[in-house]
Amino acid sequence: MLAVSPRLLRRAAACALAGVVACEPGAAPERRLPDPAEPLRPPDVRGPIPAGIKLADYVLDASLDADKHTVSGTARITWRNHTRAPVDSLVLHLYMNGFRAEDTAWMAEARGAHRGARQDKGEGKWGYIDVRAARLLAHGPAVDFKAPEQRDAAATPLALVEGADPSLGTLALPRPVGPDEAVTVELDFFTQLPRVFARTGYDGDFHMVGQWYPKLAVRHEGGWQAHVFTLHSEFYADFGDYEVHLDVPEDMVVGASGVLVEERPPEGGRKRLHYRADTVHDFAWAASPDFLEYDDMWRDVRIRQLIPRALAADAQRHLEAQVAALESMDARFGPYPWSTITIVHPPESAGGAQGMEYPTLYTTSDILRLPLPLRLLGIHELLTGEFTTIHEFGHQYFQGLLASDEATQPWLDEGINSFSNTLVLDDWFGGDATIARIGNQRVSTVDMIRVALGSSAELDAVDRPAEAYRDFTGTFGGTVYRKTAAVFHTLRALVGPEKFDRAFRVYCDTWRFRHPTGADLRAVLLRELGPKVRISETGPDGQPVDLDVADFLAQGLETTASVDFTVARIANRRAVGGGGWRRGQDGALALIEPEPEPAGEELADEASEGFALIVREGEFRLPVELEFEFKGGERERLWWDGQARYRVFTFPGRKLAGVAVDPDDKLLLEGERLDDHLRAPGSRKPDGISDPLARFSEAVDLALLGGLGL
């Protein structure tokens, strides 16, 4: 029972009546720091950048009409052909056209909804990008076109042809671009932003401008990797340098990828801003006259938060989460290479813009504003704003730094990032990595993943293209995010955290500023961990138990097999004795009567035999640790390779009291654990209520956590 003073009760009641926000602390004074001088951290801090990775440089010059919610401008693109074959056309992503009409690939699948937000029904419903002119500026040796005022009088007009889905377009070139040659084109474009409900758009004076310009696809040896924009697909592009010039209303506070290198004095109610981003594969920006600015430093990295006044009280909690993410990921996965990170807090009315990543910039979500009475009851959570901040920053590594193809293998981005996020929480909070707490009941990072797996993760395999997931099945989140995280957490627990972490760091160091595939990740893990990892020197039959790493990854990523073990039966019985007809030394048979069982008494241990039946109900085959508890409290652990459908364990001369499957919770892939523990009959007095209540309580917990959308 809580002892709460009358004064505190009155304050709680006032909060409940007046609203939560009124009882929150007000906005702190703004904190502003100058932009870093360079977009990248110093070479001795960030580490080397591989030569030849910058294949697509951009000069963007654009103007925002904040009343009509349009962006018009030019995109000058220099592309280098690093393949062995000549290329006669350029393929462009026109992502904003995904919102152009009901029958685009994106809208046909989304049906006007995205992560709970719905498309506006009135004016501002649609968005599009219109490339109104294109021209060839240079062909051959690379030419520096960084200054937007430069023009080439001899420019050759080009024609852009939209694809069957308008999110793709093709520019035919007058002659092919040979290997190691470069081409520079310039496009005039006009972008109409939609009222935001999915990542990009506007809400009143707030503008989130993402995927707003014509953007080159990635050229592989086999051709252009150009993906139609679909509901679950995100983005894939080459690294390059960006020089971006923005013309915006004078009162706009702007946050953008990279660093601000120049701001011209306002003129005629407008201002021009010049941003530079180095070694990135995208550029996004946000603008609002209502942003407050809160800047801080982590080592030599500036952390900039742009946040509406109504949410400004939460800036400190987001900062702490951001610092925790930097501390953890910089140490685990290699140095964060850029000199700044910008966190954009969309207003509460623009929830569709929350939770999206771009190079050196991301949008976060609001922290759940719990009424004071609930906080007094010990309810606390990190599931909303703070976890979003950690998750979206994690994308600076997966997929900002290790730029995998999100459309082809989304798990390399979302799934590996989700795995890394739980490691951030573990590093931040240590052994008490609690994501939510109600009184003294807590939900750990492991619980967060396990309870969110659900049956949906058994419908689709992890390693599938984004377009293969249907929105109607609801499998994308459970499979790509949570099951991937569970696969790698389970592997890490089985082989040992230190060994796994060393191997994974090799992957991160090897593929920085590149485009790793799932095969690349598997190859590194197999090389660094070895094809088989010894789990136990002695199994049930005296043979060692090994984990086949390739087989584990194949099952986890390529199949829908589930991990599910159960303790099917435990019993104790009379051990086999010496009674019966036996041949003596003289060769004659003689009857030996068995010793009578004691009446009304339990058999002595030496006359007993305990046995347990462990069944692998799931199709996923992997080693599992078992803990056997014997009468008197003694415990013994054994590893079983889990290959057979079941295994009977017998213990002559010992009485079993209970059995536990996976006692250290290493198999995070196992979502159903209610049948992982069993007590032997007679090991305690059944009261007819404890077991049913315990199982009911656990089932309710799982249902509630599922309702939170974990």
Automatic annotation (TrEMBL):
Region of interest (Disordered), residue spans: 27-46
Domain Peptidase M1 membrane alanine aminopeptidase: 319-530
Entry GO MF terms: metallopeptidase activity; zinc ion binding
Record lineage: Bacteria, Pseudomonadati, Myxococcota, Polyangia, Nannocystales
Name assigned to this protein: M1 family metallopeptidase
InterPro entries membership: M1_LTA4H (IPR034015), Peptidase_M1_dom (IPR014782), Peptidase_M4/M1_CTD_sf (IPR027268)
